[in-house]
Write a structure and sequence with these properties.
Blueprint: H1 2-9, E1 20-28, E2 33-37, H2 50-61, E3 67-76, H3 89-102, E4 107-111, E5 117-120
Parallel strand pairs: 3-4
Antiparallel strand pairs: 1-2, 1-3, 4-5
Length: 137
């Protein structure tokens, strides 16, 4: 169900430059769902990925509620959306930080609009040599 919703929510992305629409939908421990999409900007560094939009929304709307799963999908006018994509490095760091702050793993479900679906048991698997709060203490 999360994959289907992530595929649909790509329609709400704002990606007039890359034409690469990404949607992310989370299921929370309280069984609520929250979605996010990428938001581009003519000044490219100002844009933000769907995963970080999603995490910010969750932290604001449902503070202290762990995320159990996140489905991420994409749709593109330029390339075929027939295989899973993986979060970028900044999003991997943000996902790991969210796992750390809630002390719960986040299962990631990665897909395109069709084709294979990858399931990653915990976001930490995507960033094995992470920079964490331990480096700052």
């Amino acid at each position: 169900a999360l994959v289907a919703e992530a595929r649909l929510v790509t329609a709400y992305a704002y990606a007039p430059y890359s034409h690469f629409n990404v949607g992310a939908v989370a299921r929370l421990a309280n069984d609520k769902t929250v979605s996010g999409t990428n938001q581009e900007n003519a000044s490219y560094p100002v844009g933000i990925c769907a995963e970080r939009v999603l995490l910010g929304s969750i932290a604001t709307l449902h503070p202290h509620v762990p995320v159990t799963s996140i489905a991420i999908s994409y749709n593109s006018e330029e390339v075929k959306s027939d295989h899973p994509i993986s979060p970028c490095g900044m999003c991997r760091q943000a996902l790991l930080e969210y796992e750390t702050r809630t002390s719960k793993p986040i299962r990631l479900i990665l897909s395109g609009q069709e084709g294979k679906v990858f399931i990653v048991k915990t976001a930490s698997f995507l960033l094995p040599f992470a920079f964490t709060k331990d480096e700052l203490i």
